[in-house]
Amino acid sequence: MRSHQAAPAGVPDFLHPPDLELAGACLACGGDLSVRLRDGAARGVCRGCGGWSTPLVEREPDGVRVHLLAGGVA
């Protein structure tokens, strides 16, 4: 997991680097997941297949825990 420095103020949100990059975390293809933390929510996009996810991020005493929930529609 890598974290990035925040971009300067005034830069559009889509140009900011991701807050977290999770190697091999995409549930669909196994690609790298880029995650942004905004307004109490996390949003992720796979750099390989472009799939979106909503990871659950919890603060722990020694860091953060990231849960990726699998779901689908039959």
Which descriptors would you attach to this protein?
mainly beta, globular
Overview of the molecule:
The structure is a single chain. The chain has strands at residues 2-3, 20-22, 33-38, 41-46, 52-53, 56-60, 63-67. The chain has one domain. With 74 residues, the protein is mostly beta strands. The strands form two sheets. The chain has a five-stranded antiparallel β-sheet, with no helix packed on it. A two-stranded antiparallel sheet has the order 6-7. It starts with a strand and ends in a 7-residue tail after the last strand.
Shape, per Cα inertia axes: globular
Order the strands across the largest sheet as they lie in space: 1-2-3-4-5
Mean pLDDT value: 80
The Rg value, from CA coordinates, equals 13 Å
Total domain units = 1
Number of strands: 7
Helical/strand content category:
mainly beta
Helix content: under 10%
> Can you count the helices?
0
Residue windows where pLDDT falls under 50 for at least 5 positions:
none
Binned strand content: 35-45%
Order of helices and strands: EEEEEEE
Distance between the termini: 32 Å
| Biggest β-sheet strands, sense, barrel | 5 strands, antiparallel
